[in-house]
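User: I'm curious whether this sequence folds into something compact or stays loose and floppy. Could you predict its structure so I can see for myself?
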Amino acid sequence: MKRIFILGAGESGIGAALLAGKAGYDVFVSDASVIKPHYRQELVSAGIEFEEGSHTTDRLIGVDYLIKSPGIPPSVPIIREAEKRNVKVISETEFAAKFTDSIKICVTGSNGKTTTATLIYHILNNAGFDVCLAGNIGTSFARCLAERDYKYFVLELSSYQLDYMFDFKSDISVITNITPDHLDRYNQSMSEYATSKFRICQNQTDSDFLIYNADDNQILKYLATHSLKPAAIPVSINDELSGDHASVKELQFEIQLNNSIMTMMIETLALQGKHNLYNSMAAAVAARILEIKKDSIKESLADFQNIEHRLEMVTKVHGISFINDSKATNVNATWYALESMNHPVIWVAGGTDKGNEYDDLIPLVKDKVKAMICLGVDNKRLLETFSGVVPEIQETQSMKTAVERAYYMGSPGDVVLLSPACASFDLFENFEDRGNQFKYAIREL
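Assistant: Here's the prediction. I'll summarize afterward.
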């Protein structure tokens, strides 16, 4: 019987534990923190051994795999110890893939991967495919497989997951963009970060596909120096392309694949803005590869409902719109959010700074932001960058106060935009908690 040591008892770790237990492995789960009650109950119900509050090194004896949850850095002592003992350290996604021969459509990128993955799932589901949406998006790949197998999986993959994937193979890969994010985990190197993202292509063959953003400099830089096996299909909103591609011509986008052309008017897309145009086009290319009918794709792109915490329109209060973009945890995501605004903005930003460079936002902020609220424990770098750029800046460590101040700063027609450009861990449990508190505070106005 193979022995599995699972590090981390969040969604990823619990999913891996349930799948491993169902497959007959000897499973042990270890978490340095207190395990959330509902996850602890799942382990108890499944009869899986676990510990919390510490890691017992002796539990590594005889272990075949250590399955690492994505958020745990590779530098923690228990991982170093496992590597010394020649225990294979893998991701939950790598482990789960051993239990299915499904077709896998995998999406990564610094921004837009959740929206793109959800769009692809929406198109496939509407077309009647037996499909599951999983991965970094919320429900773990392993948990889905512990319940049942599917013919198709749409997987959102973070760089942290990809770093510990070795034999996993994607059938259709999508890279939305590569912009500075999580560089603290990659020695402040964009090259290392890009290499991590391109691990999505490892093990792909010439019968597989890579859909990529041809307007992204980091992607183009990598492709110029690396030879990849999958058929590469570029997506651009700036350039005219030849061969199989997706591009924009006047007021519509065009997809050419296998000598067949699909067009769609941009104004009919459910998701507007340049960033969402990339997402919609990439999703449509993936769907055409799977030979989904053009009309079905168009219908799905037109009726799609945006995901929670990503440019989510919450409500209007006395003519002031409130938009929840809590998932914007880096500068580039916030750039896209501000770029899509067509009314004066009261911008709520701040949180745990990941080495952000905010200067790229200055032209947009100068043009669109009438007031700013810094919501974080340490707002020093935001204040340094935007003092003198934004007419009015206030600070707070309370979401309730931030929403109240934004409301009183606003006038009918204005937009209060929560788009933090930072991680959430200084004041909130995660970006979902931050977004939910934003929505709760709005309801309390």
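Summary: The first strand starts at residue 3 and ends at 7. The CA atoms of residues 5 and 66 lie 5 Å apart.
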